[in-house]
Each structure stands twice: as C-alpha cells, then as structure tokens.
Amino acid sequence: MNTTASPKTPLPVPSGDRLEERSRRARTEPMSVLPLGDGLYEVESASDHTYLVDLEGGRCTCPDHVFRNARCKHIRRVAIEITEGRTPPPGEIAVPCHDCDVAVFVDEDDSEPCYCEEHTIWPGDTVVDRETGDRLTVVDVSVLRADAVRVDAAGCTVAEYGTNENYEPDVPVVGAIYPHATVARHGVVPESLKVYVFPRTRLEKEP
Ligand SMILES: [Zn+2]
Ligand SMILES: [Zn+2]
C-alpha cells in the first residue's frame, strides 16, 4: 500500500501549558508518523529508530512502553498528529495526490486514484486532455469505472478505447464536452454538443 509519512519535524509547544515530560518530548523531538492502516502507525524517532504504535491498543514497541508500560512519547505523538490533522485517524491512510505530491487522507480500503483539493475536478471545471492538450469542460464525474462503461459507437469499453489503453482501466470516468457547440437559427445543433467520456487519470485540472 502506497502510504505517506508526515514531515519529520518538531511541533510547536502550546504556550502556558505545563506539559508532562513525555508530552513535551512528543512535541519537541522531530518525529515522523507513517500510517500503515489497521490502526497501526510507524513512528520514526529523532535518532532514526522506528517503532510500531498500535493506537487503539495503546501499545508501542519502544523500551519505554515495553519495559515501563508507559504511555510513551511515540503514542502521544501519534495522538497529537491525528488531533492536529497531520496524520490520518485509524481507518484512513495518507496517499499522495495523483497529480501532485500533497498527502490526502483516504479510507484505507479505497483503491481509486486520490486527488488533493486543488486537483479534484467538479462539473463546470476546465480540464486538459493529456493525450491531445485539448481543453474541455467537465459535465459529469462518475463513480463508474472505465472498464465498466461502453463506447457504443466503437463496440468497446472506455478503458479499451484508442489511447485510453495508456491509462488505468479501474479508475472512474469523467464526461466532458469540447467548447465548440454550434448555435443555429433553431437553437443548438445537437451533434455539436456531444459528451465524451474519459478515464479520470487522462484529464488534468487546468491550473
Ligand atoms: Zn514508544
Ligand atoms: Zn494535487
């Protein structure tokens, strides 16, 4: 599973708080947290040791927890990072956005490509076709997969159609129109307003 660690850095200590030593070190020491799914987190400590934290079980593989049964700085760090939105809660993992490297928190069972807020597309957005460079306007973001939607005229699925073979077959499809509708005396010419269907990963949101 593709999963991303939080940046290895100290966290600010809230002013005025008289923190217990372990809570203070959970913040002041640079640690990174890698969500593994199933409520497990791998914490890399300042000294580059890695420890496995089971958050819901309140367990850690470090000596402080194993020998003293303490709620160690690693368990505290995971809890702090979840509270502050730096690390996903149990049940979710962090994956890089398909179109940039920003970490996105998603359900750990989610297998579809994920997008950050900036790269998520909505109807009305302008996108660029990576194959042709054409600009299109999105009219539907479907939950149906490219290998489950047919292109009737071609007698195959969207995933199998032409250069779509270069893209993942198991991603959702997006309906989009070219900005070239023709208005005639009796209104819009229907054929000029055709909706084309693309695998989501073939389209990139226009920056
Ligand atoms: Zn620990
Ligand atoms: Zn992104």
Fraction of helical residues: 10-25%
- Distance, first to last CA: 29 Å
Give the helix tally: 3
Poorly predicted runs? none
Order of strands, widest sheet: 14-11-8-7-15
Task: Describe the structure in your own words.
- The protein is mostly beta strands and 207 residues long.
- It contains 3 helices and 15 strands.
- It folds into 2 domains: 1-114, no CATH class; 121-205.
- Strands 14-11-8-7-15 form a 5-stranded antiparallel β-sheet, with no helix packed on it. A 4-stranded antiparallel β-sheet has the order 1-2-3-4.
- Helix 1 (21-28) crosses helix 3 (73-83).
- The protein is elongated, with a radius of gyration of 24 Å.
- The mean pLDDT is 93.
- Residues 51, 60, 62, 64-65, 72, 74-75 line the site of one zinc ion.
- One zinc ion (ZN) is lined by residues 51, 60, 62, 64-65, 72, 74-75.
- Residues 1-31 are annotated as: Disordered.
